[in-house]
Structures are given as C-alpha cells and as structure tokens.
C-alpha cells in the first residue's frame, strides 16, 4: 500500500474513531437531557398541569347483544352520549319479543375499560331486574348514570354493553 | 514508479515472511485477512455450539411443566447467557468474519485496511467469551436478568454481572475496531472502476452495518459503564433510590438495541443478494433500490427504539410515533423481498445448498417480519410483551434469518476457502433438516405466546404442555442437525467431493471468483485491471452509469 492510500486510510479511521467517541458520550448526555427533551416536546405525562387538568366530557358508547336463539331484539336509541363530569346521563333502549311465547329475560351489563365502572354510578338500569315480555310485546327501557366529578385525562371514551339472556 | 515497484517487492517479501509463520504463531500473530476471517468464523461457530447447548438446557427444562433439571436461578442464567452469547459471540463475529474473508476479495483489495488492528479486533473476542463463561462459576452465578440487562436486577446482581459488563466492553471495542476496518476498506480500497454503486450487495450491507456499529456499540458501552458505576462507584444513573431512572436505561439500551437488530439482519440481506442471482442466473433485480432500501432501513432503525418499551408506559403521542415509524420499516424491507422474488422470477434456477438456504431465508424471514409488524402495533404489543410470541418472532428473524444466511454463505464460499467442493447431499440434508425442525421448534411458540405464556420462566401452567413438548423435541433435533454441518465443513477441508474450480458456480460474477480456489494466501496485491472489473460488472448489468 502506498503512502497516499495509507494516509487516506488513517484519516478515515480517525474520523470514524471520533464518531465512536461522540456516540459513547451521547449515552451520558441522554441522562440529564432525557427529561428536558421530553418536557420540551410535550411528551411528559408527569407534568403537574396534566395531573390537575379535568377534561369536561367523556364519550359513552352503548353496545347491545342477544344470546343465541333468544327470539328478542334490542335497539339502542342513544348510541353515543357525551357525559359531562358530575352530570346525569340517560340512555334509552327498545326491546321487542319477536316470538309467540311469553319470555323472562335478564340483561347482563359490562364495562370497557373496567376502570370506567368506578366513574359511572348506575342510578337506574333495566338490568337490575328480570323483564317479563308478553308475545310480540315492545318495551322502551332506560339506564340512568351519574358521572363522577373528576374524569381522568386519558380515558376519553367508555363502552357499556348489555347482553340479553334468558332469566 | 520504480520506487513504488520496489516497495511492492519489499512488501511482498514481508508478506511471504508472514505466510511462513506456522503453528499457533500463524493464528496468534495473524494479520492476513483470510486467516483472521477463518479465526472469526471458527470462533463464532464454537460460540454457536455453546449458546446452542444452553438453549437445549432451556428446552430440556421446558419439555414438561414443573422443575426437572435446574434451579430457577440457573435457568435464568441460561436464558441470559444464551442471548448474550448468540448475539455478540455467534451472529455478529460470523458476519465480521465473512466481511474479513470476502470484502478484500470482492473489492479487489490486497487486505483489510488495518491488518494489525484487525488482529486485535479478533483476539479481544476469546477473553470476552471466557469472562462470560467464568461468570457461571462465581458466587451468585452469571447474570440472570435477561440479555437486556435491565436495572434494577442488573444493579442488584452478583459479581457475574461485572464480568458480563467487562465482556460487553471487550466485545464492543472489538466491534468498533472491526467496523472501522470495514468502512475504511470499502471506502478507500476498491479496485479501479468499482464505484460505490457498482459494489457487490454484500459490500454495501457490510458498509452500512459497520456504520451502524460505530454509531451504537459505543452507546451500549456507555450504558453498561453507567451500570458499573451505579453498582460500585456511587452514581445514580438508574437507581431510583438516588434520584435515577431505571427507564432511562431502557431508552439507552434500545437506542443501541434496535440498530443492533439490523446489524444482525443487513449482512444477511447482502449474502442473500449474492446467492440468489448466482443460482437464478440473473442479475440482482433492482440493485439501486436495494442500496436505498438498506440505507433507509439503517436510518429508520435509529427512530424506532421505544417500540421495545410500549409496556413501560409511554405517552400516547410517543406510542403512536414509534408505532408508525416501526411500520414504515416494512416499506424498504418489502422492497427487498420483492426484489429477491423478482430476481428469481423466470430465472434458470438450480437448488444447490446455498440457494436452498437463501430461499429458506426469504420465506422464513418474511414470516418473522410479519410477526414483527404485528408486534409493532402498540395495543397488541402491550398484550404480547414478554410472551413467547416475541420469542417466536425474534427467532424467526435471527435463526431462520441471520443464521440461515450464514449457512448459505458458508456453503457458497466454502469452495473458495478450501479449494474443495462440499458434499451436496449432506448439505441438502442439513438444509431440510434445519428447515423442518426450526419450524417445529419455533412455530408453536407463536401459539404459546398468544395464549399468554411469559418468557424467561422455568415452569408453566399445564395448558402449555403440548406445544412446549413439541418445541423441545424440535430444538433437540435442530441442534443435533448442526453436527451434520460441522461434519460437512471438516470433510470439505479434508478433500470433500473433489477439487473446486476457481468459479464453481457458473452464475457468479463477482471478483472473488476470479482468483484461484483455494484463494491463495495473498490476492489482488496488484489491483485487478479495469477490464476484468468491467467484465464482472457487465455480467451483473452494473456497467451502465446509474449514479
């Protein structure tokens, strides 16, 4: 290898070595600047102003299901409701017995996410009691919920689901 | 001119003196790129055997629920060491070894740029491996907190962790020096007429990989140094008790760790891009797009690290950013897979062992890529984090990806290295054996992960028994099959299936096939003349100006 090529190789190697050294310090630089960086681009959830922020509305979605083979239909009259912190929410459903026999059914409620359950207090629900339906009867039922005074910022939406089962 | 000819002669005499060193001196004092490449390859194979034995220890314990063989602490040491040894001891040195052996031959350079530094890069590896093995026998045993060395476990662990930290320092130093050598060789020592965009793809992927290593190996070295000072010198980088942040370690580690994934994948891409055109007897489809794909994968790899940390609790904005950046990597990777398939399309394909491994690579790496895409979706990843689904995913990309490409490369270049042909029947048996048992081992792990089986546990609930038994049987068969490979390589060195011509594959047009088989100790002392370079480029359809 001639002297010119040798010099070029040396220069390349020194430059690359400097990059390696710089990257070694980069890890250390992250230690103090990681928090600063997160705060600067607004990615820090631990910021105090986020902790106290009270979002005003929670989006409530209602979902309904019927157990297999049950001759009943259920229709959600208010599919999506905006729930205000501390307010009351009323949602209506229309249940119909499509069969020729009288039926006794019960609605099984569930929540997603589960922690939404603690924020919504059921004052009245058609799921509290079994329902007796005459043949071909249609009936409107309701759910009334009291919304908690403080809603967590990241919750955003909650789904309430009711599944009709034979009682 | 006279002066330079004279120097050449002098150097030649000097080289002859090196070649004359015999016995252990030839290897300990090695400065020849071929000798050093051979050392790297044998070292990585022995580490593969060591790490593989540990894997069999893991699979033996997991064959049935309950504790049969090991204490849980030792089981965790096995999983940790298996990871560290396979990543840093087996896969990475194997690619460096291939780069050492093949780059000067493929580029028309007389040797690597820094022959003595090259020697040091290699000889740092055995002490590092020794430190890792010794750590098994010190009080407290080897590190057992997983290969990612997360604090607080890595801060609380015994002195085995210190040995592992020093081992990682040595491995990192070796990688950085090896990479400086590769970059310098590729940038400064190519034959006249071979511009950057006319290089073989393996040279391109080695170059980009070396850049990645220079950028991230020091970051890992920094992270483990911080661990070391946290452990012994009163710093509090990661100690929550002193105001430090354990999550910071994860950020720094994965800033290294994700590019590391591509450090183990890109050279495999390069190898497959050499093998497929040879046996399809067609030039590589979309050469320039391949180069751009490699470069964009490398750049993107620096912007996705936190997808390893979705379950840690990132703000939604950060989760979305890292999720979308990760999904974006599917685009250049898709370009590569498309180009490989298009290379084979309407080619006159034959299925010698290297080709089988290359096609196996394309199929199974794509499966691993898809499970990676599934994991890139933050809400799914939070569910899948630390389950066997992740284990299945990274073994598809690392075993069927990196390792299969290494087997392919070995069969492909073995005639050049040894001057003999390997036994084709045994090679094909090795491929099909590996292909079948690999899938028997790792495919059930997808189901286990989806069903919720966590990784790094020595015992598990009864419902996971069947798939675990299947995986263990697969692992033992896969492991035993690798002895076939060892036998085939040794047999080839001893004569194999007869003498190999300089160009054993008629579809191969890169420069390494222009020298005799076995490659003489010194090659391209005078750079190949431009006509020879041009001839090869024309055969690969790389002679037009596309820069």
TrEMBL record, chain A:
Membrane topology: Single-pass type II membrane protein
One Pfam family in the UniProt entry: CtaG_Cox11
Transmembrane feature ranges: 12-34
Alphabetical UniProt keywords: Copper, Membrane, Signal-anchor, Transmembrane, Transmembrane helix
Primary localization class, coarse: membrane
InterPro entries: CtaG/Cox11_dom_sf (IPR023471), Cyt_c_oxidase_assmbl_CtaG (IPR007533)
Subcellular location: Cell inner membrane
Keyword Membrane among record annotations: yes
Top-level taxon of the source organism: Bacteria
Family: Belongs to the COX11/CtaG family.
Name of the protein in question: Cytochrome c oxidase assembly protein CtaG
Species of the source: Jeongeupia naejangsanensis
The organism's taxonomic lineage, starting at the top: Bacteria, Pseudomonadati, Pseudomonadota, Betaproteobacteria, Neisseriales
From TrEMBL, chain B:
Keyword annotations from UniProtKB, A to Z: Cell membrane, Copper, Electron transport, Heme, Iron, Membrane, Metal-binding, Respiratory chain, Translocase, Transmembrane, Transmembrane helix, Transport
Domain Cytochrome oxidase subunit I profile: 18-531
Catalysed reactions, semicolon-separated: 4 Fe(II)-[cytochrome c] + O2 + 8 H(+)(in) = 4 Fe(III)-[cytochrome c] + 2 H2O + 4 H(+)(out)
UniProt subcellular location: Cell membrane; Membrane
Stretches assigned to coiled coil: none
Signal peptide: none
Transmembrane segments: 39-60, 80-101, 122-143, 163-189, 201-228, 248-272, 284-306, 318-342, 354-378, 390-414, 426-447, 467-490
EC numbers: 7.1.1.9
Record flagged with keyword ATP-binding: no
Database matches in Gene3D superfamilies: Cytochrome c oxidase-like, subunit I domain
Record family assignment: Belongs to the heme-copper respiratory oxidase family.
Identification of the protein by name: Cytochrome c oxidase subunit 1
Organism: Jeongeupia naejangsanensis
Gene this protein is translated from: ctaD
């Amino acid at each position: 290898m001639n002297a010119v090529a040798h010099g070029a190789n040396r220069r390349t190697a020194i430059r690359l070595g400097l990059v390696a050294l710089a990257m070694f310090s980069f890890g250390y630089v992250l230690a103090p600047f990681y928090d600063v960086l997160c705060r600067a681009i607004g990615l820090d959830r631990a910021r105090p102003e986020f902790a106290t922020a009270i979002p005003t509305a929670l989006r409530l979605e209602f979902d309904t299901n019927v157990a297999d083979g049950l001759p009943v239909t259920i229709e959600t009259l208010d599919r999506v409701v905006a729930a205000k912190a501390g307010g009351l929410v009323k949602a209506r459903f229309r249940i119909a017995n499509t069969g020729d026999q009288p039926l006794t059914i019960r609605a099984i409620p569930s929540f997603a996410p589960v922690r939404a359950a603690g924020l919504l207090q059921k004052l009245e629900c058609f799921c509290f009691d079994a329902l007796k339906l005459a043949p071909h009867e249609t009936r409107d039922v309701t759910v009334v919920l009291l919304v908690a005074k403080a809603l967590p910022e990241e919750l955003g939406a909650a789904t309430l689901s009711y599944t009709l089962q034979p009682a | 001119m006279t002066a330079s000819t004279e120097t050449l002669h002098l150097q030649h005499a000097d080289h002859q003196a090196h070649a004359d060193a015999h016995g252990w001196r030839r290897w300990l004092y090695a400065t020849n790129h071929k000798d050093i490449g051979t050392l790297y390859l044998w070292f990585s194979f022995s580490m593969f055997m060591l790490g593989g034995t540990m894997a069999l220890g893991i699979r033996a314990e997991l064959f049935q629920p309950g504790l049969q063989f090991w204490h849980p602490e030792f089981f965790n040491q096995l999983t940790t060491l298996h990871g560290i040894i396979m990543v840093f001891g087996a896969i990475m040195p194997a690619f460096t070894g291939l780069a050492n052996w093949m780059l000067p031959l493929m580029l028309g350079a007389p040797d690597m740029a820094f022959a003595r530094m090259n020697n040091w890069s290699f000889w740092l590896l055995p002490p590092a491996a020794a430190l890792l093995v010794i750590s098994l026998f010190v009080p407290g045993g080897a590190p057992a907190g997983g290969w990612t060395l997360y604090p607080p476990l890595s801060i609380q662990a015994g002195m085995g962790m210190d040995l592992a930290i020093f081992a990682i320092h040595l491995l990192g130093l070796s990688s950085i020096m090896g990479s400086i050598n590769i970059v310098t060789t590729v940038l400064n020592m190519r034959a006249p007429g071979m511009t950057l965009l006319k290089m073989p793809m393996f040279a391109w992927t080695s170059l980009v990989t070396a850049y990645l290593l220079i950028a991230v190996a020091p970051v890992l070295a920094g992270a483990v140094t911080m661990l070391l000072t946290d452990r012994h010198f009163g710093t509090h980088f990661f100690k929550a008790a002193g105001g430090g942040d354990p999550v910071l370690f994860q950020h720094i580690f994965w800033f290294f760790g994700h590019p590391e994934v591509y450090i183990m994948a890109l050279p495999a891409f390069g190898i497959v891009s050499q093998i497929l055109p040879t046996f399809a007897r067609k030039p590589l489809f979309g050469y320039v797009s391949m180069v751009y794909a490699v470069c964009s994968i490398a750049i993107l790899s620096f912007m996705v690290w936190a997808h390893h940390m979705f379950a840690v609790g990132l703000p939604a904005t950060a989760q979305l950013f890292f999720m979308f950046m990760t999904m974006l990597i599917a685009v250049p990777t898709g370009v590569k897979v498309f180009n490989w398939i298009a290379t084979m399309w309407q080619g006159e394909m034959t299925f010698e062992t290297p080709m089988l491994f290359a096609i196996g690579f394309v199929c199974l790496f794509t499966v691993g890529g898809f499970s990676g895409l599934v994991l890139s979706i933050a809400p799914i990843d939070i569910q899948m984090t630390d389950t066997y689904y992740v284990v299945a995913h990274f073994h598809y990309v690392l075993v069927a990806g990196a390792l299969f490409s290494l087997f392919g490369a070995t069969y492909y270049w073995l005639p050049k290295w040894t001057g003999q042909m390997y036994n084709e029947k045994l090679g094909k048996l090795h491929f099909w054996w590996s292909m079948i048992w690999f899938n028997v081992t790792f495919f059930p792990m997808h189901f286990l992960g989806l069903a919720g089986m966590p990784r790094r546990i020595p015992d598990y609930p009864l419902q996971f028994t069947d798939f675990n038994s299947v995986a263990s049987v697969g692992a033992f068969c896969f492991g035993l099959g690798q002895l076939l490979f060892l036998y085939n390589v040794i047999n080839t060195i001893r004569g194999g299936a007869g003498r190999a011509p300089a160009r054993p594959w008629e579809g191969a047009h890169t420069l390494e096939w222009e020298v005799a088989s076995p490659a003489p100790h010194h090659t391209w002392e005078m750079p190949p003349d431009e006509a020879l370079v041009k001839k090869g480029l024309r055969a690969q359809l790389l002679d037009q100006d596309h820069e």
